[in-house]
User: Fold these one by one.
Assistant:
Number 1:
Amino acid sequence: MPTECSQDSFAFGTVDGRRVVGAFDGGLITSDAGALLLGATSKAVALVERFAACFSDARAVEQIEHTVGTLVGQRVFGLALGYEDLNDHDELRHDPVMAVLAGKLEARRRNCAPVAGKSTLNRLEHAPEEGAGFTSRRYHKISHDAGAIERLFVTLFLDAHATPPQRIILDLDATDDPLHGHYDCYCYLPLYVFCGRHLLSAKLRRSNIDASAGAVEETARIVAQIRSVGPA
């Protein structure tokens, strides 16, 4: 008897009035179709939108082709797919899957792609912290709120629980992060704070420090935010 448990296609909603469907019948094939599942996951918790809200954009609105939300989402999904270098996005900006994730299948301006290339993304990568006088610089029109980004990690953790957990165990760890292009193995020593599978903090640090540097302060910040919304 033939089985009926196999699904032939998967629907991913609509973009610009067009249905987005994943199927197994050939046709136009992409190696990054799994990103659609990442996009669905992001939508479930509004991850990209909430992350993008931690940035400020002082660019002229009438000249913007790629919003901060598009740039942030493109970089997040690119990293998740293994595209670490910004150079990769000069090809990815023409990838229909990236366009679907951005919710924008066609560019509004002539000679533009639906999503950004390396030069535009580079301006996001080098966005200074708010209050650093970024609006006086020609290319630094996008800034970020470091505190808001740090709080978002904890907020996502709290949102994942319908009721406050009875016990919270924080796991602190550090790992070496070798610098690309340095053959003598120069590296950073980032600090990570986890609670189970949830990442609550990721602090980039120099490697010529004690492995516990900043751990007490970071733990105190996380605990204070958790206690501010739940039982002490």
Note: Helices lie at 35-45, 47-52, 68-80, 89-92, 96-102, 118-125, 146-159, 215-229.
Number 2:
Amino acid sequence: MRTRHIEVFNSIYKTGSVTSAAKHLNVSQPSVSKVLAHAEQQLGFALFERIRMKLVPTPEAHILFKHTAVMEDVLIDINQISESLTEFPKDRLRLSCTPSLGIDYLPKAIAIFKKNNPNVSLEISTLQYSELKNKIIDTSIDIAIAQDQKEDKEIGVLNLTKGVFVLVKPENNKNMNLESTPFIKLSSISPLGKKLDKYIQKNNINLKSTITSDNYQMAASLVINGFGYSILDEFTAKISQSRGITISPLKPKLEFSIDLMYLKEKPLSIMTKKFMEFISNFNYTV
């Protein structure tokens, strides 16, 4: 029996007539009669006999209904779940980002998204650049947000917004001589570090560097403690400004992209797509 056969059979069995079954299923009476006839033809036996103007289930129908009634409950559950997923997708979203974006940018976005989507279950983590791609490929996370990412055969990239590098100095030493002051350099392991290296070489900037850090917050903390100065992404700099950092624009200007990464070969859930649409239109302000 097909699913439609079961729906019609169960409805006639419970209501006792084709007319009532048609009303219950919100279809025409001839349509119900046609489906019933087709079901009986495939089964090879009658399901109902007309006795005194009523459709009376045959003995075979009584036996069959014990099983089709269970099937009907399953179909109802499936329909309810389908409607719930469409209207109120209760889904898990596993999201990761680089540490610098996890300080303020992503938390602000998530706070708004969670408020508008209270049913979503979020798992959030921060990872270094080298780990993000591997975690997406082995499906440990669904999507990731990082700076200056490139699309390849496995990883898709959605550009979200732009950011800029800024010059940061200790607030209590605004007039420091940069030529004789230690420069805290970002590690070239990261895409931002590589971009900054190329910028420094291209513009023939002479820097005295004795410390290299792959942690942008640590670089900012060293500036706060008066060790030297650095060039950082605007997100790390702005969140550290209240702790004793002065920020100046970098000239010439140096931009970087903020990108969302996802696995191309894996279908995205409704909630993941919804978050991607949201974060694409998210307007970050400090």
Note: The longest strand covers residues 155-170.
Number 3:
Amino acid sequence: MGHLRGARGDAVSGRLAGKVALVTGAAGGIGGAVAELFGAEGARVHAADRAGAALVCDVADRAAVDALVHSIGRIDILVHAAALTGGTGAFLDVPAADWHRYIGVNLDGTFHVCQSVARAMRSHGGSIVTIGSINSFAAEPAAAAYVASKHGVLGLTRAMAVDLAAVGIRVNMVAPGPITVPRNAELFASAPLQAMFGRMVPMRRAGVGHDVARAALYLAEDSGSFVTGSVVTVDGGALAQIFRVDD
């Protein structure tokens, strides 16, 4: 049922041996990289997405989420990567339908999946990793709905960490910056985007899905047993930089 093996370029050490993991958004670049790496590290991975994954689930549909979680049974690790991305236009022109769609998938969906999985985890504990964004801390232009939803994911992650610690569930977030995935690879390779990364990212490039997956692995594995309510930012230093004087 969506069991994946083999993460290209990663040293495998069985850090998740014997664990059962659910990865949402697994048909996307980041979710797919997480599922691949976790499988290579020994986890039994259940890969879910709205389409293109072994398990089909719309995270905005609570009944579908509950049915998915029930079908899996025991879950030790959740990485919730399912999300809508991108802008919807300048704030004054954002249609209410777009606002509700982004909040419904990105924030309500995070609530649905995390609560359903946490209820299944509370008898044995576990680790939940949400995928936020540097837009959880700062705003890019013309993306109000996305930015608001990702700020909400950060707040929800911290609230869950506080409430779920008593039942042995850790909750943390990975906040990616610009990450090259199949849907944006051509755009990110263009001269204007390469120039933008050179100006805005201290490492002067975009990351890749496995950069995010490795951060999620650290938060998911048992060696992080005292880490909860935390954020690992994977952005090449973008949030650390106020401005840069060109060389």
Note: The two ends are 52 Å apart (CA to CA).
Number 4:
Amino acid sequence: MKPSPLARDRHALYEAAVQGVDYDLGYAERLFRHLRGRAPRTLRDDFCATAALATGFALRHPDNESWAVDRDAAPLAWARRHRLSHLNDAADRVHLVRGDVRTARVPRVDLTLAYNFSYWVMRTRQELVAYFRSARRGLGRDGLFLVTAFGGSDAMRTLVEKRRVAGKHGPDGLPIPAFTYVWEQESFNPVDHAFRCAIHFEFGRGRKPLRNAFRYDWRFWTLPEIREAMGEAGFRESRVYVELWDDETRPDPPSARRRSFAQQETWLALVAGIA
């Protein structure tokens, strides 16, 4: 049997292992409705890669429109080939924009997302504030800017974590056979918070692994630093919503907001910049 063309496709494997588009968009929409009393209808997906969030948003409602911004042409081409070509009419409401998220020309939107810690490519406070300021300018009057962060006692040390991922299908319907997702934290420098990580994929049965499918040279940004940068960038307020590993269910926004919480080995947070 001929192997699927997505069996070793790093973008398809990443989406299958890392992204939970329906959950992420559902949570963002509930938070927006909680804070603004209405549903968002326009979205900007910064550092979009294969534009999964932007596409998912357009598919959630016929009035939704999205812009997906990334400076790398390769994942945008992947999105055009494997995703937009299968959207029918919804494709007209998804706009792929190649450019720097700080300077890309995009209409003002209700909701801007910078997920999967993508903005950690900003290595200095000056760069981070400049990006947050551009994100603030890109929002409508009652817009919302959401970024993800993580931390915990395991977050600043070297480690390797593996997780088996069941077989799935890509956005174009092609199969993605089961594989193992490997997250490696290679190094962390306490002096400047330089944080280097990598993603590998393993396939078993003597098949060659896909090493260093993605590499990240980040600065590890803490919650106080993120919130202070948002304030400096002109956001009226910022709020923190946390998902703890011992939560029995994923809480809705009102119950997930935290002003303090006990340290854990790992936690995930969403920081909302309120225009």
Note: The radius of gyration is 18 Å.
